[in-house]
Write a structure and sequence with these properties.
Layout lengths: L1 E3 L7 H15 L3 E5 L6 H9 L3 E3 L9 E5 L6 H9 L4 E3 L3 H15 L3 E5 L5 H7 L6 E4 L2 H10 L8 E5 L5 H14 L3 E3 L5 H15 L3 E5 L5 H11 L3 E5 L16 E5 L5 H16 L5 H10 L6 E9 L3 E5 L5 E5 L11 H4 L5 E10 L4 E5 L1 H18 L3 E9 L2 E6 L2 E6 H4 L14 E10 L4 E5 L1 H18 L5 E10 L2 E5 L4 E5 L20 E10 L4 E5 L7 H8 L5 E10 L2 E7 L2 E6 L20 E10 L4 E5 L1 H10 L1
Parallel strand pairs: 1-12, 2-3, 2-4, 4-5, 6-7, 6-8, 8-9, 10-11, 10-12, 15-17, 25-27, 30-32
Antiparallel strand pairs: 13-14, 13-16, 14-15, 16-17, 18-19, 18-21, 19-20, 21-22, 23-24, 23-26, 24-25, 26-27, 28-29, 28-31, 29-30, 31-32
Amino acid sequence: MIRVAKTAGFCFGVNRAVETVYDLLRQGARVCTLGPIIHNPQLVESLSARGVRIIHSPEEARPGETVVIRSHGVPPQVLEKLESLCVPVVDATCPFVEKIHGLVSKNSAAGRHLLLAGDAGHPEVQGILGCCKGTYDTFMTAQALEKIFEARPELREIPVFFCQQTTFNVEEWEKCLFFIKKVCTNASVFDTICNATANRQQEAKLLSAECDLMLVVGGRQSSNTAKLRDVCAASCETYLIETADELYALPVRGKSNIGITAGASTPASIIKEVLVTMTDINETNELNFEEMLEESLKSLNTDEKVHGVVVGISPTEVYVDVGRKQAGFIPASELSSDPGAKPEDLVKIGDEMDLLIMKTNDQEGTIMLSKKRIDAIKGWEDIAAAMDAEEILTGKVTEIVKGGVIVLYNGIRVFIPASQAVANRGDDLEALKDTEVQFRIIEVNRQRRRAVGSIRSVLREKKKAAQAKFWETVEEGQEFTGTVKSLTNFGAFVDLGGVDGMVHISELSWNRIKHPSEVVSVGDTVHVYVKSLDRENGKISLGYKKAEDNPWEILRNQYPVGTVCDATIVGMTTFGAFAKILPGIDGLIHISQIADKRIEKPQDVLKIGETVKVKITEIDFEKKRVSLSIRALLDEQASQE
């Protein structure tokens, strides 16, 4: 049985902070967070792919970015610094943390000494201490609190106040509270542990007491996740994992009663993946060929091995001479573990092979034999050795089953979980049916003769090798044909064949565009060239714009000084009007060149969107400036009259 705690997953404060970031992204904002928005590397990585940067000080914010304060909160001086830098800020500090800020500020200003239960290195605690206007101490355990009072006995008499980090261990706080009531005569105590934290820890405690094994899902840097692990570990075997992939290295198979809980910063998608993977792992019991083999062997009259020679083949049987008076035969089902294999494709007359006697019928004078089971015994030995050597094996995908695929290797059915069967999540498992694949053995249960493999590990290794080869040969200016893999607000990522490069939005078009989707779509085949390489960080900047489409080159070749052309008024200033003469190029019509008489402002003669005849009077290609004149044409017209 697998049970999931009802309180597992995002708490109110974390959900509020994450949704704040997503809302800003939907509005088209450029977002950075002051520290990781939550202590979950998978979600942080996902946000990074959408352009969300992590900064560690206000000074790192770039022009045009909005800074989001995470749920942990920050010291007041950090907010003051952001304000002095005129940086747009959205404060997603958890309301429960803000409450502690207020309590600490008020009580410390009144002269009370702060005793804070929490991790001094945690960002939430650092934010709280930043609000303290007097003296303070922090502690993580009741024992540490006792040592503080032993070193400073005056704390027993002076005004002190206690509060806690919102994710502090509830049971440990109860021990601290017992000590406080015993020694402090002038203490104010505020219970600031978040209700969600308390409920989560209490549920984890009750659930772990009823389970053989507990899985705590969450980031290893998450304080509340670590405390859940400690709570559960007091009752049963407990493991903290960040992703479902870690399950395959844990002793979870065969456990009859498993509990799952998760930290307040763990996305629901990761909890679901863990649950599905756990279900898949336990359901591989139904797929275990080796266990069925063992049960079958127990019911045989003999397990004697013999050596035989093929003397006949039919669609349903293979006839074998084993040097006995009985006629030997191998049913097609006992010839190979591949249910679709045909006897005539597997053996020919004269082939020699080792066989296992399945049943002897003296009355009929026959012996039923199995090649499949001998292969399985030998195959198992190979499987065990291959895992120890981390060897890459080749086998055929014979079945698509619930939760993964079955690969046949030397008579052994190896289960490949869906998460380990394909390179990318969401790839079609059906495409693997009846194909040869390379894989590694990642788990072996020697007692029950079960094997679990991974195709993905081999694919990733090949990808790394291809990437290494790519970096050995790639040069700036080199051209590639690639596939658009994903789009962000700031550019397009292109797969160059196992290695991704990015075309910045400014490199997609000579014209101004608001989003890469105006030029390319995911799946498009594009021709790009390498603009720059960052070998240290593995980053590639790509160019996409074609030189022949450069509007300035078109201007140089087709619109020399003196050219008369149509232009569209696109902007006005006090000193003139800007007019578009080519997509991407605007020229200036100085106010003195708008009319053949003095005017007060451009709006007296022109309007936005109006098309006018202009003469190109000057071009500065270095500074990318074009001077235009309407007056020159009016003067020419007047002289002709």
